[in-house]
# Entry
Amino acid sequence: MIYRLLALNVDGTVLQSNGRIHKSTIEAVQYVQQKGIYVSLVTSRSFPSAKKVAKALKINSLLVTHRGAYISADPGKPILEKRIPEDITYQLVRFLEGFPCQIRIVHEQFSLANKYKLNHNLLAKTVFTTGDPIFYSQQFVDSVSEAIADDPVSPPKVEIYFEFEEDLEDAKQAIKAMYSEAEVQQLNSLRMDIMPQGVSKLNGLIHLGGHLGVPLKEMVVIGDGDDDIELLKACGLGVAMGNASTEVKKASDWVTRSQNQQGVAYMVKEHFRKQHPIEFLRKMNVIKK
# Structure
């Protein structure tokens, strides 16, 4: 099989556990791009945050961000944007404010969160890596519902960080029962995201492939999270990071090294060195389009 698109998750895949990108990963991305492979990021991160990672990797392509709700290469020029309606966003926030949790409205231009301080370190590991404050406004307020009552917002995603596991479960079940316009994705026992109905990383990648004329069978996906499982199963070659869970590894076709052992670079060099450049394959009529 000839692969024409490489889709990379960010956290736990491209980034090492210290939040940095290894030089070998940058070199591997450049290597496949020189072969004519389209490289994209498929991530739950906001567009500005993903764009920052893409810049470090020297990727100028369309990025699948906000867990598939926002696809763009340039700020303000999306080829796909799906949003939670303003009134539903307000209702969801009012409901969630009844729980001890931090609520973050994640827009492609800014984030807005309440000042609730959790008694565990989950937030420290996630929130402060999602964007660059210089280019991406991160505002903290006493009440998110009061803030958006005066200035309504229709975001691609809302992130919720709970204090207690049972509260997440109660909130998840209630939202699923009350709101057909929104979809809940549980990331772990204390974190869930709310997206517009029908939004997922897989649907985002399918949309990108349709835009580029690349079917799923001609894509390689490298990921490590539970929200990557359906991607790994659906694409032509699904690759799990060595640091991924057992479930993620079972869903993949190939398991590479961990994020701290340059798993992306290892997989790319092992596989794509065997594939001729796309332009050469076209000249040889192996690829007709």
Observations:
- Residues 86-196 form a domain with the Hypothetical Protein, Haloacid Dehalogenase-like Hydrolase; Chain: A; domain 2 fold (CATH 3.30.1240.10).
- DSSP finds twelve helices and 14 strands in the chain.
- Confidence is low (pLDDT under 50) at residues 124-134.
- The longest strand covers residues 182-188.
